[in-house]
Design goal:
single chain; alpha/beta; Metallo-beta-lactamase, Chain A; seven-stranded mixed sheet; 21% helix; 28% strand; globular
Length: 244
C-alpha cells in the first residue's frame, strides 16, 4: 500500500502547506484520511483523480480536516462526472455537518440529485466497522470540535495505518497505534504544551508505549517546522509518498 501526504499542514498554512489530506492508495482503490479545505487543490497539484477515491475517513469536524468535502462532492457532480458511490465515514453528526457546509458554501447544493450516491457512515467509538473495504476502528481522543473526535486505526491489504487526528495526549492512542505498520502522528509544536494538541515531545517520549513499526509526523506549526533539524523521526511534507 502506498501512503501519500497530499496535505501535511496545520489549519493556518504554516510553511505554505495544504490542510491535512492523506491518501491510502491500494489495488482496491484510493481512500482519503481527512479532507481539509484545500484538499481538492492538493489533489489537482499531485495528479490524483478524484474519481479514484472510494471513501473518505474523517477524524474530527474542524474545517482543516473535513472542509474539503463539499468541494469534493461538487467536483464529482459538476467537473469529474462521477458515477461511482462515495462513502464518507467519521464522527456522529458528520452527515448534518456536511449538509450545513454545503449550504453555507453553495446554497441549495445539499438538495441536488446527483449521478452518484454519497453514503455517510457515522462511526461509534471503539467499534470496528467495515467501510468500503477498509476495517476502521475509531478511538475517542481529546480535541473539541462539536462532535466526538477520533484517532483512526485503518486495516487494508494486511497493513495497518493509525492516524492520531488532532488531540492532546491520551492513553487511547496506545491501543490505536500498537503494532501499526505506520503511525501518522500530529506534532503541532516541538515541545510546547498546547491544550488539545500533541507535541513532538509527546510522541518522542512515548515511542515504546505506542509500539508502531514506523512513525511519520504531520500537522506541524511554524514552531515545529523551525526546529525540524532537531527531530529524530520522519516528517511529512506535501507530496511525500511511502510504501508500507
Amino acid at each position: 500500500m502506498r501512503v501519500r501526504f497530499l496535505g501535511s499542514g496545520d489549519a493556518f498554512g504554516s510553511g505554505g502547506r495544504f490542510n491535512t489530506c492523506i491518501m491510502l492508495d491500494s489495488e482496491e482503490g484510493g481512500y482519503l484520511v481527512d479532507c481539509g479545505a484545500t484538499s481538492l487543490v492538493a489533489m489537482r497539484r499531485f495528479g490524483v483523480d478524484p474519481n479514484r477515491i472510494r471513501a473518505v475517513f474523517i477524524s474530527h469536524l474542524h474545517g482543516d480536516h473535513f472542509g474539503g468535502l463539499p468541494f469534493l462532492i461538487l467536483d464529482g457532480q459538476l467537473v469529474s462526472r462521477r458515477v461511482a458511490p462515495l462513502t464518507v465515514a467519521g464522527p456522529p453528526g458528520l452527515g448534518n455537518r456536511i449538509k450545513a457546509a454545503l449550504e453555507v458554501f453553495f446554497p441549495g447544493s445539499s438538495k441536488v440529485n446527483r449521478q452518484f450516491p454519497v453514503e455517510v457512515i457515522e462511526l461509534t467509538p471503539g467499534a470496528r466497522a467495515l467501510v468500503a473495504g477498509i476495517a476502521v476502528t475509531p478511538y475517542e481522543v481529546r480535541h473539541p470540535s462539536g462532535a466526538t473526535p477520533f484517532a483512526l486505526r485503518l486495516e487494508l491489504g494486511g497493513r495497518i495505518v493509525t492516524y492520531t487526528g488532532d488531540t492532546e495526549w491520551t492513553d487511547a492512542l496506545i491501543p490505536a497505534a500498537r503494532g501499526a505498520d505506520l503511525l501518522i502522528a500530529e506534532a503541532y509544536f516541538f515541545e510546547k504544551p498546547v491544550k488539545f494538541h500533541l507535541s513532538y515531545a509527546d510522541i518522542r517520549d512515548r515511542v515504546g508505549e505506542l509500539a508502531a513499526k514506523r512513525i511519520i509526523l504531520t500537522h506541524a506549526s511554524a514552531d515545529m517546522l523551525a526546529r525540524s533539524d532537531e527531530v529524530r523521526h520522519e516528517m511529512a511534507e506535501d507530496g511525500k509518498a511511502v510504501e508500507i
